[in-house]
Write a structure and sequence with these properties.
By secondary structure, the protein is mainly beta. The protein contains one helix and 43 strands.
Amino acid sequence: MKSKVKLIFFIPIFYSIALSVIIIHIVENPLIYNIEPVLIDDSDPNIDWANFASLYSSTPWFKGSGTINDPYIIEYIKIDAENIRNCLFIRNSNASFIIRNSKFIQSGGQDMFFYAGIFLNNVTNGKLISNTCSDNWIGIYLGNCANILISDNFLARNGYGGIYLTSSYNNTISSNIIWSCNYAGVFISASNENEIYRNAISYNQYGIYLNFAQNSILSENDLFDNTFGMYILYCFNNLVKNNHAYNNRYYGYYVFDSHSNILFENKAEYNNSTGLYFLESRFNNVSRNISNYNYNGFELSESHNNTFEENLSKFSFAFFSEGIGLTNSNYNNITRNNFTNNVYGVYLWSSSDNIIIENYLIENTAAIFYDPSSTGNIFENNTE
């Protein structure tokens, strides 16, 4: 895309002393070429990349040879699938390719779940950059894919999800804007070692839904105005850091039956339920997170052997608000946290053998509350 900068100098008629300089940025948008839906299958010589290149290499929207240094490039196209198929479908491909600066709309069919604006199946070495995928069932779908970059795309009003990964590994999802996709902005299922960062995700049921995922990194995402900011289900050994979940209808971060994850330096603010909620989860490390102005700060239910260190929770607004609340949760370590300006700093119900030490618990109605069934807990060196 070319950009010109034009400088216009003029002297106002009535004010000869002043000299004004106006800088006008003129962006020349290239033509967008309307084409029919595309199917590329590199296992079928009739519809593989080589055949596609022989048909379209003379067009202004296709070039390249499929190598790392000269990838296939498809750009400046628009595909309207008219709700009967995928817009762009690539499968069984190891060639290097880039899809960029294009628009994919209205994919669909009788079985709408399996249609997308961009659909990749058994594909590696692709880049999807600066595309618009809107009014599809799924914006971008990856099944059994690896080494795919999904960056700087705009995904809106897709019926099931913005970006959907299943059985896919070592992919990067970054700097996308995803909004108003009915189910999930980003849905990751049975996929490991992916990185999801710096996305802005809003007005979905789930901002990010992580399901049966391991060894992935989720960082610097903005999750706002969703029903759930981030939903983590049956996940292990993931790093969740520096995300911001705010103004969501329910939870900022909801962690269910997930173990040995790290949640580090995340923010949860102005959510209508708990900032960070853990259900039936074990051995997670939760440190330096901020959970302010939520219904409750942190909650654990039937969750054991977790570590909470150096977290902050203030101004929870539930009627019996908690900086941190434990229900039927045992053997947790809660150390050096700051839980202030809540009804309860620390609240325990049927929770035993927890370590609660060196926490800062001032300006709460009650610094610590525990019921008679909560036994064997250690409270030491807390500031009340």
